[in-house]
Amino acid sequence: MCTLEKRGEIFFLTLTGDDDHRLNPSLMDSLRSALREVKEQSTRGSALITTARGKFFSNGFDLAWAQSAGSAAAVEDRLLHLVDLFKPEVADLISLPMPTIAAVTGHAAAAGMMLAMSHDYVLMRSDRGVLYMSELDIGMKFPDYFTALVRSKVGSAAARRDVMLRAKKVTASEALAMGIVDSAHDSAEAVVEAAVRLGEELVKRKWDGEVYGEIRKALYPELCGVLGLADKAVITSPRHVPTL
Which superkingdom (predicted)? Predict the structure, then answer.
């Protein structure tokens, strides 16, 4: 499942279940509950780091759970159910009132890659692990919000093509060159340490979380439209900004 810990102003959300961390109804319910708690406990200057234990950051939707339904129609219904359940989780992250960092300590495939990319910053280990959108290889269409997320977060058309139309297994160095991740590190521990350093830098700015979340949503209008996230007017008292 997952655990949530707060150290200072940084929340640590860690996937702790089996090695694959496949997204099934139980895990997604646990993640959404943790994100609600993060939002409720947030203060000016909070940040979130999401990471995982084991070989995978997340191996995507729990296909075994879907296939255990039996008939083809029942399996399809379960797959659609997973797609529907994950959509509000992406919306939660895109609207969360604080900076968010994914410390990708293992493979991130399909919905697992989308989970990572729903964060503001993605840090990845370079000694092991790939990013991989497997839908083309297994014969599944992309949900509309997956496509909108990739278009919003990956600037290069060639990179988008390789990820979605070539099903390329992208290493950390390749992901860095494509602009999918922000930095690459030589071990899982180094990824988490770098995420903590970044988180500490961000919380020092003491930004208003509601303002931060609204600016983030404004950056991704197509994605927010697909997710059903509406803009909110936010007016706060201006803070003194030191002269440079």
Answer: Eukaryota
